[in-house]
Amino acid sequence: MTPAWTLISAFAAALIVLLLPARAAMASRMVALVASVIGAVAAGSACLAKLANPAAAPWSFDREWIPNFGSRFHLAADGLSLTLLFLTGITAIAGVLFSWNIEKRPRAFFAFFMTIIGGVYGVFLSRDAFLLFVFYEIVILPKYMLIAIWGSTNKEYGAMKLTMYSIGASALILIGLVAAYAAAGATSFDIAHLAAATYPSAMQAWAFPVLFLGFAVLAGIWPFHTWAPTGHVAAPTAASMLLAGVVMKLGAFGALCVAMPLFPQGFEQYKALIAGLAVVGIIYGALTALSQKDLKFIIGYSSVSHMGFILLGLAAANHWGLRGAVLQMISHGIIAGLLFGIAGRVVYERTHTRDLGELGRFDLWKSLPGAAFAFTLATAASMGLPGFSGFVAEISVIIGLWQVYPWLTIAVAAGIILTGVFSLRALYRAFFPEREAAAAPPPKLPPLTWPEISAIVLLLTVSIAIGIYPKPWIQLIDDGLRSPLFQSFLSLP
Amino acid sequence: MMLPIVILIPLIGAILLAFSRGMSVKNAGRIAGGFAIVSLFLARPNCEWSLPWMPDADIALRFSMDGLSFLFVVLVSLVTVFAILASILKGKGDRAYFALILVLQSALYGVFTARHFIPWFLCWEMTLIPAWLLIRLWGGPGAPKAALRFFIMTLGGSAFMLVGFLALQLSVGTMDFDALGKLAAQGELTGALAKSFAFTGMSGHSLLTVVALAVFLGLAVKIPIVPFHAWLPAAYAEAPTPVTMLLTGLLSKMGVYAMLRIFLPVFPEVLPSLAPLLTWLAVATVLLGAVAALAQTDLKRMLAYSSVNHLGYCTLAIAAVAASQVDRAAMSSALSGVILQAFNHGIIASALFSGIAILEIRSRGQRGLNDFGGLRAQTPVFCGLFGIAVFASLGLPGLSGFIGEFLIFNGAFAITPAAAALSVIGLLLTAVFLLRMMRKVFWGPLKPSLAKWEDLTKEERILFGFLLLLIVVPGLFPQVLLHFANPAIVELLDLLRPIP
């Protein structure tokens, strides 16, 4: 199966679900699940093929699209795209499984869900800046719908804020892309073509921050991160998983594969600032998470903190930093999905609260031992303990950062310790509370269902697999990083 | 390929138990015991296994079992099996409990065989979660607080250790224990650190001292060395007794082993300047452990402090080795002593805590020093067998506790005579509180409430029989154990030669 199947299956599933008879809940679930599995298998098998034969030319698809301004329908999948496609596929499967019990307008839900997935696949595959932008925009509307219709806690506010931020950011991206298009001769939107052109340094000095910021807003760069926690909390579980798991990665992917290659000189000027903002984001996110009482807000702010590592890796702009940034994209996608799945779906659906103090009443380790055990492992993964994917990513970013900004490395170490503190606090207060012996016995809760268990096992397996044996992932990512696109700001060993 | 299989067997058992709904507790215990013992028969010394992890940072999942590792692996499986047997006898636990014990066993195997910091630290942290849950969920009324303190202190220490090793990775480019040891033996670590941390303006020696102290902190919490022992008494007392066997028999040995395998070989350049600190902390540990044990009325707390005291001797010997670096004979004696003491203490502590478990079974949870009396007449077999364990613990020649302490003092007197002399007080106090325990529990008039007690059952006799066999044989023939440890000792001594 070629990587094209990811895109085809997602959009086809969205269409098929809409054609189903009204209230066909089971059928729409199954369609979404099958499509997600096809996507993941297509991406996974392409990864394996790439590993088995690293010298083979990457899959690509290039057709004329809008000749008027030289935009082509150009898709390609190198190792970098493939790993991100695989992450998207896995998150999609887990998202469908965690949304198994959606009874409110299931057809619309899964149609929007699969549209987001399709848009994300599209961004990761696009080699044409305009096409990438179109896929990027496809993601916005269904995102709004998922939150506004199926969300909870302040959903209109959260949805609107997120959409406003996204649209503002898109405007910046569009300005940056059009400026590059015009300056490069107004003939083609091909990213390689745009990156090969040289732009005057005065232009790079304004165009880089505009374009980079447009992408970085979606990656949750401090201080433009505020959409993320409110959006994550308001969103239904599957949408939180998608938001934190893959949509935020779109921003990081755009920054890495569009903004930085297009304007390397501009990047050179701003990279210290980016690194500084990233470190502030890591520490600010961790400190804010430490003071939250709502479990989903804690995870939301922890996402801001973890996304800081991606930006930090990008700012380090060496081989280790970029590798770590991509690894962190994958790792955080998996772990955030897991945390949101357990907190938002498994626990909230049964207890109808996410308040740490309220959750303490339920003695979750007794009433939901499976969830408590899974959340313990997810917390360990989120803290970046060895054996989980987060560690691989963080150690790479740290090695990369060390070669550029050694002092910042020390601040990052403080951030890592804070991450441990807030993660453990949340785990302890929510799942292993200290109760008065005289307190009323906890209410009985229904046990975990099979879709929930499979989603948890799937995500944990991937995180541990990367943590125990990261070599193939590193090979794939390194393959992607060898692309000429990155050579203007990176020197591979 | 054999090594990863040995390490993973208990973990496979744990997963099996986790997914077999509806299995009876007794069967779960039997299966757990089976998995715990099978891995012992597959373990062989001198095998290696390695998986590249991130080759360009010289990170590999490298495991290797030499004689020294083999001794500890044997100890792990023996103590785990005894803990599982004691749990079954006590009727304690359920499927999850036995599964967690097996996870702990796998992690411990990893700790004692890993040769690179990353897999080692992975296993080191992996011991923490099951141990925490075992105390937290199956412990006594004070368990939540005790477990939390244990968890936070251990994790805090590990965080420092991780930062220390990251500093080494960033400046030397490797975290492989053997590679670091070789570099350190040539005195290259200080230079590398000074070069890559030049922006801090510190000298290489002080940088390496900071790193060594960070690593020491992580190990000191685990052993524990005074003043990092605050978690221990409550955790040992609140944990179910079989889990206490694991904590004292095995988890504390992780620290001792890491001192031998990591701390001594990697930091010889700064050992002379750290040695006085180490020595006096060791003396404090020995004395405080003994004095505190003397003041306890809860038998479990008393034995907990007694463990602190016994492991203090290990630290004393390690400090002596760190201080000398020249006197090969004394160092060799001290190192042999550490290894024997670590192994034998694991077995003896298992026997002592099994005895406590038996008292708890009979008395439905009582374990105060004054709750019993005159049991010798009522349960003569128990009294005799438990007495042998007590005498082994206080170091009676011929039993296994003696030889380790003898070798430790033999080495330590030659190098740090004052500290060794002070520590001898610890030996005397140990005899006082252990004999007081024997007197209060077994001698004197029989308490009327104990008149219906039965002597050991057949299963209990088998458990004790095995434990005592493992106390008597190494006591008479310590060479059985030293035979495995000697090559590692020689290797370590070669690395510790003073840097030219």
Secondary-structure map:
The complex is a heterodimer of chains A (493) and B (500).
Chain A: H1 4-19, H2 25-52, E1 59-66, E2 71-77, H3 79-98, H4 106-125, H5 129-138, H6 140-150, H7 155-183, H8 191-196, H9 201-218, H10 227-234, H11 237-262, H12 264-290, H13 295-316, H14 319-351, H15 356-360, H16 364-367, H17 369-382, H18 389-404, H19 406-431, H20 450-468, H21 471-481
Helix pairs in contact in A: 1-2, 1-4, 2-3, 2-4, 3-4, 3-11, 3-14, 3-20, 3-21, 4-5, 4-6, 4-11, 5-7, 6-7, 7-9, 7-10, 9-11, 9-12, 10-11, 10-13, 11-13, 11-14, 12-13, 12-19, 13-14, 13-18, 13-19, 14-17, 14-18, 14-20, 14-21, 17-19, 17-20, 18-19, 18-20
Chain B: H1 2-18, H2 25-42, E1 47-54, E2 59-65, H3 67-90, H4 95-113, H5 117-138, H6 143-172, H7 177-185, H8 189-196, H9 204-222, H10 232-238, H11 241-266, H12 271-295, H13 299-324, H14 328-363, H15 375-378, H16 380-393, H17 400-415, H18 417-442, H19 458-476, H20 479-495
Antiparallel strand pairs in B: 1-2
Helix pairs in contact in B: 1-2, 1-4, 2-3, 2-4, 3-4, 3-11, 3-14, 3-19, 3-20, 4-5, 4-11, 5-6, 5-11, 6-8, 6-9, 6-10, 7-11, 8-9, 9-11, 10-11, 10-13, 11-13, 11-14, 12-13, 12-18, 13-14, 13-17, 13-18, 14-16, 14-17, 14-19, 14-20, 16-18, 16-19, 17-18, 17-19
Read across the widest sheet of chain A, the strand sequence of neighbours is: 1-2
Order of helices and strands of chain B: HHEEHHHHHHHHHHHHHHHHHH
Helical fraction of chain B equals over 70%
Overall body shape of chain A:
globular
Give start-end ranges of low-pLDDT stretches of chain B: none
Number of strands of chain B: 2
